[in-house]
Amino acid sequence: MVLKNKISAVILGCLLLTSPLAIAQDHQNLWIEAKSISGNFKAVTTQPDIEIFSAPNVIMLKVNENVEVRLFTILGKLISAQQLEPGIFQFNMDTHGIYIIKTDKTSCKIAI
């Protein structure tokens, strides 16, 4: 019985450490400033306050005004909440999945 509990604890620990939330928390600077949006990026949405682009393992934002950006897993767990000034920013993802990006004015689903 003790061995079964230890195995269950190890499996649970491995699942928690490989979840998108745990992986995203490893990044010290979640949204980092980028110089430009170049390469194989696909436009996800274009709104007056924000443009969102995706590429394998990267989310790019072009922000036209001060805005709080929140990034969630598809299950609703918060990965990042950060106030961004106008500019271009990127978030490097270690895992593929479906995520939700929300601002005060915009909400969209993004597949990475």
What does this structure look like?
By secondary structure, this protein is α+β, with helices and mostly antiparallel strands. The protein has 2 helices and 9 strands. It has helices at 2-17, 20-25; strands at residues 32-33, 42-46, 50-55, 58-63, 67-73, 78-84, 87-92, 98-102, 107-111. The strands form 2 sheets. The protein has a 5-stranded antiparallel beta sheet with strand order 1-7-4-3-2, with no helix packed on it. A 4-stranded antiparallel beta sheet has the order 6-5-8-9. The longest helix is centred in the N-terminal third of the chain and has 16 residues, at 2-17. Residues 12-28 have low confidence and may be disordered.
Keywords:
112 residues; alpha+beta; five-stranded antiparallel β-sheet; four-stranded antiparallel β-sheet; 2 helices; 20% helix
Helix content: 10-25%
Average residue-wise pLDDT: 80
User: What's the end-to-end separation, in Å?
Assistant: 41 Å
Strand order of the largest sheet: 1-7-4-3-2
Number of DSSP strand runs: 9
Please summarize the sheet with the most strands.
5 strands, antiparallel
Strand content: 35-45%
Q: Which class do the helix and strand fractions yield?
A: alpha+beta
Shape, please? globular
